[in-house]
Structures are given as structure tokens and as C-alpha cells.
């Protein structure tokens, strides 16, 4: 099953992808998580990416295209993949089409999770993240123990780019550079829109209905 979860920052892609990856036994490929791991490890890629991420800008296409090519050719993608946060520009989408042709794994569906801007700001400003990739919300999805990850027990933190002024910039970048991909994949006949405003379990059930068609 070859799926991309699409939507603005804060739509719930990561939250849904964690559970979908378990249910369907396909790897969750979050370019944001991969970049943050590189920032934490102080790699050359991480040092380059950080200057863009801190400002709410996109990391340059050539960096992301190389990264996603490496990741998708990994052996764990043989049974499928679940993309989260890639592609974010038309050149990234074009490169993805080429890579997927080379490995004979074209996308089955691009699932677009729709949430209003006001709700996105609330979700992002209350998000608390864990280095293990889990994310929570102080009101909507709190951890069992305040400030502690349910999955691994580590301390939760607020991402630097989840501060109010960076959130606004990320939403502006989404509208300018990423939103045009909705038409791109609609024209390709593989776009499915999902209402992302319900509770996590309701959104999950709606996404599963789509993914079950490709089992
Ligand atoms: P994305 O990966 O699309 O940027 P996340 O999955 O990290 O978004 O979700 C952003 C924030 O919104 C997190 O704090 C998460 O706990 C919360 N969240 C996710 N889905 C929902 C939902 N359906 N209702 C309310 N809050 C949600
Ligand atoms: P995310 O975790 O998906 O919200 O991504 C966090 C940040 O990582 C973004 O604001 C960008 O700076 C960078 N990033 C993640 N994925 C991409 C991508 N596909 N293209 C460019 N930058 C990306």
C-alpha cells in the first residue's frame, strides 16, 4: 500500500501516521522527523536544514529529493510506505513520480486532511513533541503523565517552530508552495479529501476506509 498523507502543518498527519503504520505494517516516513533527528545528531544535513526549519521555511528541494530517494529505496519499503510531510513543492512531487516509477511503487492515494487555519494554530501552539516521534496536545490529546511521553517515558518539549510567529510563517509557506499540490494530485486522479476536524479516532476511521481499498 503506497500512500501519502497530505495537509497543512498541524492537520494531524503525524498523529494519524503513527497508528496507520502499525495497523497496516508499512513504514511511516516523516521528512520532518528525519530532519529533526539530523539536527539533534548535529549532522551536516541537520546543520544545513536547521537554518530553514527555525524560520518556518522549507528546506531546499535538492536536499529533500536526495533524502526521500534514499529512504524509499530502503528494503522496509518493499511492502509499501506512508509518506508524511513529503512532497511539499511541485519539483518535489515531480521528483517523487520519477523515483516511484524507478522502483515500481506508484502512489495509490494522496489523502488530504482538511482543517481550518484557526484550528491549526490552536493545534500547533498546544503541541508537545517527543524525540521518539510521538506528539501530544496539552488540551486535545494530553499524555497520561504531564510532560512525559506515554510511549517511551522521555520528557516532552515544544518545538521551536511551534511558537506563534513561526506557525504563521509555516502556514503562509504552506499556502504558497504546498497547497498547489492539491490540484496536482486531483488532476492525477489520486486525491482523497478527509475532514480532519473530528476527534483523532474519527479521523482515523475515515482514513482507514480509504486505505482498506488498497489492501
Ligand atoms: P502534523 O503532523 O500534520 O503537523 P500532528 O499530528 O503533529 O500534525 O498534530 C498537531 C497537533 O494537533 C498535535 O498536538 C496533536 O496532538 C493534535 N491533533 C492531532 N489530531 C487531532 C484531532 N483530530 N483533534 C485535535 N487535536 C489533534
Ligand atoms: P514537519 O515536521 O512536517 O512540520 O516539518 C518541519 C519542518 O521541516 C518544515 O517546516 C520544513 O522546514 C522542514 N521540512 C519537512 N519536510 C520538508 C519537505 N518535504 N520539504 C522542505 N522542507 C521540509
Automatic annotation (TrEMBL):
Binding-site positions, Zn(2+): 130, 132, 149, 152
Residue span, Adenylate kinase active site lid domain: 127-161
Q: Which InterPro entries match?
A: Adenyl_kin_sub, Adenylat/UMP-CMP_kin, Adenylat_kinase_CS, Adenylate_kinase_lid-dom, P-loop_NTPase
| Superkingdom field | Archaea
Instruction: State a single Gene Ontology molecular function.
Output: zinc ion binding
Q: Per UniProt, which keywords does this protein have? A: ATP-binding, Cytoplasm, Kinase, Metal-binding, Nucleotide biosynthesis, Nucleotide-binding, Transferase, Zinc
Please list where the region (NMP) is annotated.
30-59
> Could you tell me where this protein is found in the cell?
Cytoplasm
Q: What class of enzyme is it?
A: transferase
Signal peptide from the UniProt entry: none
- Principal localization? cytoplasm
The record, for CDD domains, names: ADK
Please give the catalytic activity noted in the UniProt record: AMP + ATP = 2 ADP
Sorted alphabetically, which Pfam families does this protein's record hold? ADK, ADK_lid
Write the Enzyme Commission number(s) for this entry.
2.7.4.3
Q: Which residues bind AMP?
A: 31, 36, 57-59, 85-88, 92, 159, 170
Binding positions for ATP?
10-15, 127, 135-136, 198
Its GO CC terms?
A: cytoplasm
Q: In which pathway does it act?
A: Purine metabolism; AMP biosynthesis via salvage pathway; AMP from ADP: step 1/1
Q: How does it assemble?
A: Monomer.
NCBIfam families the UniProt entry points to: adk, PRK00279.1-2, PRK00279.1-3, PRK14527.1
> What role is this protein assigned?
Catalyzes the reversible transfer of the terminal phosphate group between ATP and AMP. Plays an important role in cellular energy homeostasis and in adenine nucleotide metabolism.
The text of the family note is: Belongs to the adenylate kinase family.
| Domain topic, free-text comment | Consists of three domains, a large central CORE domain and two small peripheral domains, NMPbind and LID, which undergo movements during catalysis. The LID domain closes over the site of phosphoryl transfer upon ATP binding. Assembling and dissambling the active center during each catalytic cycle provides an effective means to prevent ATP hydrolysis. Some bacteria have evolved a zinc-coordinating structure that stabilizes the LID domain.
Q: What is this protein called?
A: Adenylate kinase
